[in-house]
Amino acid sequence: MTSEDFDPNRIRKDFPALDQTVNGKPLVYLDNAATSQKPRRVLDAIHNYYEQDNANVHRGIHELSRRATVAYEEAREKVAGWINASDPSECVWTRGTTEAINLVSVAWGLDHVGEGDEILISVMEHHSNIVPWQILAARTKAKLRYIEIDDDGRLVLDDLGSLLNERTKVVAISHVSNSLGTINPVKEITEAAHAVGAVVMIDGAQGAVHTKVDVQDLDCDFYAFGGHKMCGPTGIGVLWGRKELLEVMSPFQGGGEMIHIVERDQSSWARVPNKFEAGTPNIVGAVGMGAAVDYLNDIGIERIEAHEREIMTYALQQLGEVPGVKIYGPKSVDEHSAVISFTMGDAHPHDISTILDMEGVAVRAGHHCAQLVMKHFDVSATARASFYLYSTKEDVDRLVAGLDQVAAIFN
Ligand code: C6P
Question: Which residue, 74, 77, 92, is CA-closest to 246?
Answer without folding.
Answer: 92
